[in-house]
Every structure is written in structure tokens, then in C-alpha cells.
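User: Modeling request: complex.
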Amino acid sequence: MTLTEPTFLILTALADEPRHGYGVIEEVLSISGGRVRLRAGTLYTALDRLRSDGWIEVEREEVVQSRLRRYYRLTALGAKHLADEATRQRHNASVASRRLRNAGFGAA
Amino acid sequence: MTLLERRYRRLLALYPWSHRRRYEEEMLTVLLAGAEPGQRRPGIRDVLNVAAAAASVRLRAVPGALSTFAWSAGAAVTGLLASLALLAGAVDQAPDRTLPIYVSDGSTVAYLLIPGRSGSWLPVAGWAAVILCAVLGWRRPAAGLAWLAAGWEVFDFVRAYRDLPVLGVDVAWKVVLAVVAAAALTIAGLSAATSRAVALIGWRRLLTIGAALAVLLAAPLVNRLTVPSYTETAPAAVYVIGGYESTSAWVILAIMVGLAAAWLMIGIALVTLAPAIRRRLVAFMLPVAVPVLVDKLTLAGWRTSTGSMGHAIPLVPAQWLALFGLPVLVGLAASAYIQRREHLLHMVKLGRSTDLAES
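Assistant: Request completed. Predicted assembly structure:
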């Protein structure tokens, strides 16, 4: 199964440590070099699906300044899918770069 | 609660309750964390994003809701009854018909033969096959055949519209009814929870409706056979009511009583259906009334113009939308209303039993 870019970035953001919703948005913004700014609707559609598929789970809940923060973490299943996807993308990217180089398109 | 928070909450109310219960508080945290200092209302991109996400959550819930017993049962009943009505309509239109032509001095009368349209026995066979499959409980073949028959009704509409736009508008409701029948049979066919439509309606009710439809179909036929010949030279009184005519007042009276009884029987059969099924039947059938009402309420001027201009005036996009887009909206709104009302009644019942348990 191919992951959409937002889903791939969300899983990547959760790979090193559990994060809450806004933390995921900031991390995705930084991973993508400021290119992908997730909106709340998109984020929670993805989180809901990933949670029901068992790729992520709730780690803990905190109330900070009377606001609920729920921390999510990657499950073993989610980690495996993310690793598979990373391998697939690395393979495709390296093939693309090699062919561009061979065709004389320079520093691609 | 700040003004901005209240506005975000109102925005998040677009989500269904099951989603809000789980995510509303943390989504609110995220939205507020992303807000600029001093911001007073949600940004347009957040509004659009949340609205689209909420719509997709609601849409994903539709198949689940439709596969509940009440909806699939209502759909099965609607599919069968709508197919019966379409079969009756097809039978009525299929044979050659004669229409009396009155000449201006009133003394001579000619008869105009209107041949049945080419292929007009096809929908008779089509809807009869749909009904047979539905009665036997073959739900998927019934749905497939219904889409084919509905396709024919669309073709018939296009053919009539190209002959004369008003003739097309006359049968627009049949296109909507055919699509309703096919869609309802599809919903019934996709769900695992349906009993057979016949069991839900009951044989007695079904036969009553069938008999009433037979009376409604037979009345014009009987009248055609007993119509005054107008060749007699002796003066004779002719009674005419709503297209029915006879030299005997008793025959006219008998026809009127027969028609009234038939409609009454259909009415009673439908009103006595189980309430949950009856409500859904109404929701499914409401769209069929839309083209009729649009025609009666808004197209009278167009009918006159297109009839007297010497050339046909095609319908404009807004009129097409009203004829065929509005029925979709009406059907969705009616279904959503029923779903909401039943949910509310369920909640009231839960509240009452909790209250009783506590007292």
C-alpha cells in the first residue's frame, strides 16, 4: 500500500518520540523544510485512520492550561509499514537519479 | 471561553457526534495553538479544511447507516413498490390508444390513433422482471435489471424531449422514480441485513396494491370499449368526467367509485406499513414529487411560450437543475431528517429509562 505524503510525514514525525497533535504539525513542517503545513482536519482524518488500523496508539494524555493534549506513538506495525515505505521511496528515488545522470541531465 | 474558542467549537460541530466525542477537545487545542495572537475568527483555510474533513467523515458513515435493518428494509420495500408503479405506468403507455377529436361544430367526431411508441413493451418486460426478482428475493439481479430499466426510462425521456420538450417534462418524474427504484434496490442488495421485500410488505398488502393498480389500469380500457360511438342519429345524453365518458350515468358513477376505492386501498395499504419503513418510503419517494411540483409551480410560462413560439424553447440549466438536481437534495435532506429524528427519540428514551432507574 502506498502512503500519501501527509501520512508518511506524520508517521515519520512519530518515529523518534511520542508527540501531541500540534507537535506533529510543527514536526511535519520542519521535516518537510516548511513545505507541508498540516491543517487540523487533515491531521485528525489521518490520525483516526492510522489509529483504527493499529499503526499508531495513544501514549498518554495531559491537560496543559486546561487544554487536552493527547500524545501518539508509533506501534511496531506502524514502524514496519513506515520502514517498507521508506525503502520503496529510496529505491524509486535512486533509480530516478541514476537514469537522469545517465541521460546527461546533470546533478539530479 | 473566548470568542475564538466558541467559534472553533461551532466549526467542529460539523463533525458527527462519535468523532467529536473522541477528538473535539484535542482538535480545539491544535486549532487554538495554531491561531495568531489576537485572532478573533477561524481562518478561511482552517474552515475549509475542517468542513471538508467533517464531510468525508459523514460520507464514510453513510454506507454503515444504510446497511442497518431499518434502511435496507425501507429500501427493499421502496424498490418493489416503485417498480410496481413503473410497471403500471409502462403497461398504461404500451398499447395503441385512441383519442376522440371533437370538431368545432360539435357534431362530428373522429378518432385519432396514437400508436404505442416503438419498443414500449420493453419497459413492461423490464419492470416485470425486476418485480419477479425482488419477489423471489434475488436482490442483486433485481438491482441490476432495475438500472437497465431505468436506463430505458432515461432514453424514453430524451426521445420525448427531442420530439417536443413539454412531452419530456411530462415524464421527468418517471425518470426520477426509476432512479429511486434502482437506487433503493441497490441499497437493499448491498446490505446483508434485509429480509425479503414481500415479507416486509406482506402478501395481503401487496395483492391489495396490485389489485388496485389493475383497477386503475382497467378503468380507461373499459371506458374505451364502452365509449359512445357518436354515429347514432338519435339525440343522446353523454356524461363526461375527467376524460371518462358514457351515455349511462351509472357507468360513469361506477368508474368513479372504482377509481376512488382503488386509491383508497393503496392509501390504506401504505399507511398501515410499519412506521420505520413507512417513514423511509416517504423519504425515498419525496424526490419523485419534485419534478411534478417544479413543473406545476414554475414551468407554466415556459409551456405556453414553447407551445406558441412556433419553435421549441429548450430548458435552461437552472430548470434542468430544478428538475433533476433538486430531487437528489430533497432525498438526502429527508433521509438526514429521519436519521436525526430517530436518534433524538432514541436519546429521549435512554434518558427516560435512566431517570426511571434512578428514581
